[in-house]
Amino acid sequence: xxxxxxxxxxxxxALAAAAGGAQAQxxxxxxxxWVTQGxxxxxxxxxxxxxxxxxxLTVEIKPGGPDIAPEQVIAGGGADVITTWMAAGLAARERGxxxxxxxxxxxxxxxxxxxxxxxxxxxxxxxxxxxxxxWFFGNExxxxxxxxxxxxxxxxGADGVEVLKxxxxxxxxxxxxxxxxxxxxxxxxxxxxxxxxxxxxxTVFNYRDEGVGMLxxxxxxxxxxxxxxxxxxxxxxxxxxxxxxxxxxxxxxxxAAQIVVxxxxxxxxxxxxxxxxxxxxxxxxxxxxxxxxxxDYQQTVDTLLSAVSPDNPAITKAPEGAFxxxxxxxx
Length: 331
What we know:
15% strand; 5-stranded mixed beta sheet; alpha/beta; 3-stranded antiparallel beta sheet; globular; 331 residues; 10 strands
């Protein structure tokens, strides 16, 4: 009888231990800003190399796409944390989705305006009268801030620029529908070169160099969640493992690219494409510990506020509470 009792207690303790272990494995859902590609290599690497497991996390990575707005997904309860550009995050916050930046894996920005020299664009003084391709859905804010800084109307005409709502490809530049188009250093710029144009045939403007650079891929959560210490602890584990993934991707770009390819169910991009992307992305994450640099944050805010207009309605006043170090303080 005594042996039976001891055996029963041991079994109960084992079940309790198992249950405790299951509770320790927290789940996190991450909504990406765009489709599976090298832009998000750090997260896929963290998952593939077991960095999330080491932190006791089960992470679901949800790819984005042209019909997916991360800000709306998290507002609807479809994600715990999202990646998005700061301009879009601040715009959403001013419109009622209380997003807070909790970490900034991207130290530098990769947004470019890529132009054809044979369309007569070699400096910003050549913009008037030209058609420029621009992405929308929150990606347009840096462009309108830049045009405002240059004093150029976006309503067309000889003294302004014509705005072409650009799809997520480089066709308008190749087919000369636009003199310039939006590109990212790690994606569309490579597509332009792959299409046959050479760097010598192009004029490339980096938004950062033009003084209108804004923070890009950061990690954002809903503000009320940060009142829960357990959620903060979970996000600290998530950010720590993700930054380890980014560090690994910088040291092993080809392996990281293969991991991205393995996670891309669409098969839209080749391993060569992803190696290019990861190599370029690594230049943007270099120097970041995950902690938001408040000077970079302020530059983004100041740039947006310098160009408030109906065309550029990202924010109309200085945000309050739009970032927090409570997660990265625990790294």
